[in-house]
Structure formats: structure tokens, C-alpha cells
Amino acid sequence: MAARNRPRTGPLKDDSADAHEERNMWNQIVNDLKRLKALQSRATEVSKSIVEMEGKMSEPPTLPQIDDLQALYREGLKLAEEEQKVLYEEPNDVIKNVGILAALRTASETEPRNTQQPKSRNPKRQKLETDGTMDSPGPSPSAPTSAAKLKAEKVRSGSVPTIKEIRETKEPVVKTEEGSEGVKGPSAEKAGKFFTGAEVAYKLSKAKEDPQWIQCEIINIDTAGNKKRYEVQDPEPDDNGQPGQIYKALANALIAIPSPDTFLPDYPIGKQVLARYPETTTFYKAVVTVVKKDVYRLKFEDDNENEMEVSRRFVLDLTNK
Are 296 and 278 in contact (CB under 8 A)? Predict the structure, then answer.
């Protein structure tokens, strides 16, 4: 089993270079908006001319009148197509660029660069006490207390991709389709995502600390009582080489890991996710920087700007758990 220690070195991102990239993007957006204004102004004129011409046409219309009207319609169509290109297509893509710039500015203004030491990725997970979202590990269940909600966390400025990195992805963001809904907590339970043999991310936690998520497999389901209780097993052997530890959990401590053949929608650039760190069975927060066919390129939290590629099915949505 690969160790979870991970060396994390590398220079911090050059803030002045980022600022220069943001200025260039802002200037491009301004120029594209000016172009849009000119296109829309001309489109308004063409529309008025069409209305006026149709009102003055004779019955039946003459061939010159028909030709003039067709020319106006063709011009109007061309103007509309130009507007769509400026708004949604490279190299302009105003809608996408405004979203990127807003995300960059929000991240840089709401939180200073992290100067703390990176979090340690321990080679062996400690046995953690449980909270209300799960039972204590072992064969004997304990009564659950109130569930602790996963706290929302803003994307750090150090985890935000540069403009150049964002430009590397040319695949469009697609709408959520079948297979991408109901993968978390009670909604996943209702959707039948939690069954014996299913792979899940399981939340370990200690009081007043961020929860830790590990990859597990559901090995048993207890349907007695009002709520189902799941036994999940850590795939990593313990210190003595014995089979991995078994935990008991409720649905709100689980996230379904999609099967290899499941359709997976694209997450947008800049989205915060929960992803399995390469060569480990532990999940950490990360930010999407590049979308590829089979993998996402991610910047993991507190990882000194290093980027890792992670299989799409091990990149999970953090929201609405």
C-alpha cells in the first residue's frame, strides 16, 4: 500500500503575473463588450428597416422589394451569429471569461494566501472518534447523535487556476445527466446507490476538526429500525497486516463513488471538489483546473500549487451533502 506522505515543494505562484493576466482578460472583455454593443446597435437598425419595408411593400411585392428584404434578413441573421460567437465561442467567449475573472477576483479578495505549513498526509490513518454521522468502529453499534454538517469552505486564492491553465481546456461544460444525481447521503440511499459491494467515500471525523474522507466498500446493510445502517470496510490493511478496519455508518456519512461505466458530467473550471489523492485511498478538497476526457487535473488544498490528474470517478461533488 502506497504511503500517504507526499512531498510538497515548489514555488508559490507569482502574484504580479496573475495580476497581469487578470488585466489582460479584463481588457479583452471590455473590447468584446464594445463589439457586442456595435453589433446589437446595427441589429436594431436592421430590425426597424425590416418592419418599415414590410409595411411599404406592394401587393404583390416586386422582385426588387423581395431582394431588398432578403438582404436585410440575411444581414440580421449574420449579426445574430456574430453575437453568439462573441458570447460563447473562443477566442472571445465573453460569458466564460467573465465567470473566470469573477472567480479569480473573489478568491484573491476574500482570503489571503495561505502561509501555514501544509497539512500532513499521514501514511497510516489514526483511529478517529466518531461523531453523529456514524457509529464507532467495531461490531457494536452506538446511538447516533445529531449530524454535523460539512462546513462550507471558500476556494483559496492559492488554489485558483491561472488564465493560461484555464485556456488549456476546450471541452464545454455539459448539463447534468442521468448518473450524476443522487450520489450523496439520503438522496443516494433513495436512489439505490448504496448496496453491498458498492464503493463509497466514508467520512471520518474528530470534534472541531475538518472531516477526513476515505475510500471504503459497503460489506453489510442493517435494515432494522427507521434508518439503514451500513458496515463499510477500509481497503487498507491495519498495522498488523489484517483486513482493513470496519466502520458502521448512516447514509449521511457516505458519498457514492460512481462505477466505471457511469456517465459523468463535466465539473466547471474553478469548482471545489472532493478527490482521491493519487496512490492513496484518502480524499481531500481540491479545485478543478483542467477537464479532460478520462481525468481531471486538480490543485489539492495546501499542496503548494502542485497539480495532479485524478480519474473522473474519484472526483466527487462537495455540495449539498
Answer: no
Cell numbers 497539512: residue: 119
**pLDDT (tens digit per residue) in 118-144:** 454 544 444 443 433 444 444 434 333
CA distance 141 to 84: 59
Q: Is the dihedral of CA 183, 318, 173, 294 positive or negative?
A: negative
CA dihedral 257, 142, 227, 182 (to 10 degrees): -20
CB distance 120 to 73 below 8 Å: no
Neighbours of 127 (CB within 10 A): 12
Entry pTM = 0.47
- Is the Cβ–Cβ distance between 262 and 313 less than 8 Å? yes
* Terminal CA-CA length for the chain: 29
Of the candidates 261, 319, 253, 251, the one whose C-alpha atom is nearest the C-alpha of residue 285 is 319
**Spatial contact of 97 and 87, defined as CB atoms under 8 Å apart:** no
